[in-house]
UniProtKB/TrEMBL annotation:
Pfam families: Helicase_C (PF00271). It comes from Polarella glacialis (Dinoflagellate). PROSITE patterns: HELICASE_CTER. CDD domains: SF2_C_RHA. One of its GO terms (molecular function) is ATP binding. InterPro entries: Helicase_C-like (IPR001650), P-loop_NTPase (IPR027417). This is Helicase C-terminal domain-containing protein. Residues 8-198 form the Helicase C-terminal domain. The keyword Amino-acid biosynthesis does not apply. SMART domains: HELICc (SM00490). It comes from the Eukaryota. PANTHER family: ATP-DEPENDENT RNA HELICASE, ATP-DEPENDENT RNA HELICASE DHX37-RELATED. Keywords: ATP-binding, Helicase, Hydrolase, Nucleotide-binding.
Amino acid sequence: VEPSISDGLMEVTASLVQQLAQPGCTVIVFLPGIADITTLFETLAPLDDSRDIGGRFGAVTKRLDCPRLRVFALHSMIPRNEQEEVFNPVPKDQCHIVLASNIAESSLTLPDVCGVVDLALRRTVQYDTRRLMCCLVTTWCSQSSCKQRRGRAGRTMPGRAVCLVPKRFFNDQMPLFDPPEMMNAPLTKLYLQAKQLCTTLVGVTQRLSLPPNIRMDVTTPQSLLRE
């Protein structure tokens, strides 16, 4: 299955956010990248009681039982001063909706998280051996990553988490763990570091901690550096 956000999923996510929202709490929505965060931010704009200018009017309708909402976006490309308020205590009559990439998976602690909506997608840097360059691609999360995201809810209060993939797909198709970063990274930098530390490169691949049955090809970075 192609890792992508299907049509209508943003509207489904907006509906789930309202169902999970509670006064004085935070709901986290995990999205793959800044473009998807921006799209959902605009979709939820009409529900944000703190904004005078709405977004995609008519796309979503606010539930009568939904508390006052405040929508935030968390991403490394967003200026820090625009994100700082999300770490403050949530007002008792308001619910914070935080749209985030995997930056909120384990690096940040948000106050009073009562709900998580996980699209089970992430943007990762992978090395394209054909084009000999790094590319930013959308991939499915691992099961362990989804469980880590799910664990953001219910730490200080009862919480609920929704992962937007079928259970069978989660169990049968999604990897158990994320691959080691060194398997997707360009080897030129690693080669130079190893060369600096070792008087000879003979056997350096055996010293590296690699998964079983996987060999590291050091001929490509060697040839690239010679060129």
